[in-house]
Amino acid sequence: MGCFQSTVRRQFPGYEDPTVLAAQTAFSVSEVEALFELFKIISSSVVDDGLINKEELHLALFKNRKKENLFANRIFDLFDVKQKGLIDFGDFVRSLSVFHPNASEQDKIDFSFRLYDLDGSGFIERQEVKRMLIALLCESEMRLSDETIEVILDKTFLEADVNQDGKIDKCEWQNFVSRNPSLMKIMNLPYLKDITTTFPNFVFNSEVDEIAT
């Protein structure tokens, strides 16, 4: 086992023992092992270096390496824990764990807050919600008028921004999503619970076998 892990670590910088990762996340050991197979394919889809770069993650999430997407960029930024522009296997598993159906609701709420807090200020501002809303609408190929988008923003901030300071803090966000649980649907990826049987179907919108073609 020691020789195997030594070889894997040379090929995949940041590789960690599945038993250790399972203890730190919502995944079982077998699920972590299945995720490693997935990681190997994604991390070699553009540059075969044992790490996932932003282009590879875009390709895995949306099947299109040329398409710029704010949502995919935010996911990458939050997964890139070491802020090196690359995601290693350990960070991939730990970050992905928040989307597991068995992950705590609090972890999901905290992650979703960071997802919308684009500038990392500790607050979600109207312009940030607008940018993310437009990005998600574009990805789903939905079209809404500017007026409709502004109505959605007005309604959101009327309900969420309790102290009416023009921004949503963490406490306000937690109360808002607790009253609107549909907002948390994006934080649950059911097939992560069955990754060992559903592989090679990837977790967001793509299929792993398409990455390699």
Describe, in plain words, how this protein is organized in 3D.
Helices cover about 55% and strands about 0% of the residues. It has a two-stranded antiparallel sheet with strand order 1-2. It has helices spanning about 1-10, 20-25, 30-45, 55-60, 70-80, 90-95, 105-115, 125-140, 145-160, 170-180, 195-200, 210, and strands at about 125, 165-170. It contains 12 helices and 2 strands. With about 210 residues, the protein is mainly alpha-helical. It is globular.
Number of strands: 2
* Strand neighbour order, sheet with most strands: 1-2
Largest sheet: 2 strands, antiparallel
- End-to-end Cα distance, whole Å, is 32 Å
Structural class: mainly alpha
User: Strand fraction band?
Assistant: under 5%
Radius of gyration: 18 Å
Q: What oligomeric state is this?
A: single chain
- Shape from CA axes? globular
Question: What's the helical proportion of residues?
Answer: 55-70%
Which whole number gives the mean pLDDT?
84
Poorly predicted parts: 199-213
Write the layout of secondary structure elements.
Blueprint: H1 2-11, H2 18-24, H3 29-43, H4 54-62, H5 70-79, H6 89-96, H7 105-116, E1 124-125, H8 126-139, H9 146-160, E2 167-168, H10 170-179, H11 195-198, H12 208-211
Antiparallel strand pairs: 1-2
Helix pairs in contact: 2-3, 5-7, 8-9
Outline of this structure?
The protein has 213 residues and is an all-alpha fold. The chain is built from 12 helices and 2 strands. It has helices at 2-11, 18-24, 29-43, 54-62, 70-79, 89-96, 105-116, 126-139, 146-160, 170-179, 195-198, 208-211; strands at residues 124-125, 167-168.
